[in-house]
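Action item from last meeting closed. Structure (152 res):
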């Protein structure tokens, strides 16, 4: 969608952004069905890798019914766990990876301004290479997506 990061990420997970046009303001009242609800209902394993900070958290945790459900919040894990899960063949059937990129500590893995796009591309390729080296490569689809500021 044409808009900033949070509405774009909500749209990617729920097919809508809850009428949210910007990143400004609180997230109260935004509760919608997501792809994670559909996967959970069908018994399909999923996981969302993302970072928490003092000012932000992984997008699924902004959705009240997910944040209140221990079974669902258990599938929202730190991005630092990703490479170990790949190497140990612990990826679920559906995996979302959100490297973010707004903060200086995240610039080593993000194609989001103000980071260096080539550094972010290298991080992305390291993830793809790790998956390719693993036992699931033969039946894996990788669908990279970018929000409004990535994918130049």
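Sequence:
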């Amino acid at each position: 969608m044409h808009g900033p990061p949070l509405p774009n990420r909500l749209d990617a997970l729920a097919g809508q952004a809850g009428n949210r046009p910007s990143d400004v303001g609180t997230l109260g009242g935004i509760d919608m069905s997501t792809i994670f609800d559909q996967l959970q209902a069908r018994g399909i394993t999923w996981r969302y890798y993302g970072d928490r900070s003092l000012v932000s958290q992984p997008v699924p945790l902004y959705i009240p019914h997910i944040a209140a459900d221990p079974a669902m919040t258990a599938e929202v894990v730190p991005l630092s766990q990703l490479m170990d899960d790949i190497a140990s063949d612990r990826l679920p059937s559906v995996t979302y990876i959100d490297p973010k990129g707004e903060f200086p500590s995240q610039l080593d893995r993000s194609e989001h301004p103000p980071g260096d796009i080539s550094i972010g591309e290298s991080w992305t390729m390291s993830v793809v290479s790790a998956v390719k080296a693993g036992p699931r490569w033969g039946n894996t689809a990788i669908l990279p997506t970018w929000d409004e500021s990535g994918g130049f």
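Note appended to the action item: The radius of gyration is 15 Å.
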